[in-house]
Amino acid sequence: MVELYAIRKKSDRRRPPEPGANVMTGTTGTEPANYVPRFQTQGRLITIRDSSCSLFGVVPAMSAPIRVGVVGLGTVGSGVVRLLVESADHITRHAGRPIVVERAVVKDVAKDRSVQVPGGKISSDIRDISQDPSISVAVLLVGGLEPARSMMIDLLEHGKDVVTANKALLAEHGPELFELARKRGRSIAFEAAVAGGIPIVAAIGECLAANRIDSIRGILNGTSNFILTRMEEDGADYADVLKLAQAKGFAEADPSMDVDGTDATQKLAILAHLAFGVWVPWAEIPRTGIDGLDLDLLKYAGELGYRIRLVAVASRNDGRLAMRVAPALVKIGTPLAETRGAYNAVSIVGDAVGRMFFHGLGAGQMPTASAVVADIIDTVVGRAAITFRTTGVLESDTEAAKISDTVAHERHFLRIRVKDQPGVLAKITGTLGEHGISIASVIQHDVPGSSDEGVPLVIMTHACASSAVHNAVAAIDTSDVVRGKSVCLSVLEE
Q1: Catalytic, out of 267, 299, 402, 419
Q2: Minimal CA–CA distance to 481: which of 397, 411, 416?
Q3: Is 299 annotated in the active site?
Q4: pTM, to two decimals
Q5: How is domain 211-361 classified at the CATH fold level?
């Protein structure tokens, strides 16, 4: 440790302090017992904890390496080890000391891997990391809730700071784990849990700390965005593009958590936790996936000047949080509409800074590894410990936020399949009028022949209460001229 001191003037050197003065001295802690500080002055003592700093020519020796343990050597875990090894010099400059992978814990030790752990220390027992006193940082890169939760508790109980990319774990057990970490004087860093390589957690928790966050809108799932982009650009059906996404590695063999909105909803819960200081149980956030969309919906949206994206929304609304994850129309030319492929994007509005936009790869080995290693560096230099004490940290018994899925007023896109007969349009528009909904435009293409499924009637409304639209659509779907369930999507203009 180096203590910071000030020089008043040359004549003050070696001059004894006045009786009762609070003295600041320049020492390194290695001086002999009879050492008299060269400089001293009156005032407050300021301590710099970073021993790599240099003051007045005193240059401490290079600090000992920080040893980390990696739990999980899957796609992301392998990328983290590769980055720590291949970029060691660069990372050392940022961390102020070397960061060494001491050991890895995996489920199957015998499995062939694309990366080698330095020293070859690989085992299947979490205690090899949690109970190793030489390891101070644990990188938890296993998915799901168990055994991930038990592993994190074990690591925290044994005094390890934890870096993780497990969004499901934090969305489900965040308050419990955060509280335990605080009690043990440890930190949990989780930048990689949301939006892959985009530094959105740091942006909300640190860079925008002076702002009252008013709203968040984001494309938080790369799989869904890839599917919608290829459907739009290639004119392909949902099922065909899903197979392509699986072949390219953008979608899992079981893609349900991606396409039904679960993944994006868990990420939104974490962002809301940070931005609004409330705990939002992710399962209570209304969500609709993209698995109910078809190519015709994307074509109609395009005719109206929009694209369809799976958008996560959170905003303050009359003392409540309006939150949802659902497909929405976004205006062509706006940043969210132009986010294509497996990319993620987040738009944030702060009361001081205004609207900000973040864009980048939201998944993949190296983008996610980049966020993980950045968190490791922050943990090593002490930034994570400082920010963790105040950023989005709640007690486990904190009251959950009251949420709704409706924004006060917004436009809506409706597709209603109706019988091809006179008077149908008047009947539909009449029902909308009874609920106070004004129509901006209507599309009804000539469809040759007849179909039991009905013909599509597409309506764009003016801005109106979302609750009124939902009630009107429910009434319309009970009509004898309607075939099947209607589609109602929100329209985002910005």
Answers
A1: 267
A2: 416
A3: no
A4: 0.83
A5: Dihydrodipicolinate Reductase; domain 2 (3.30.360)
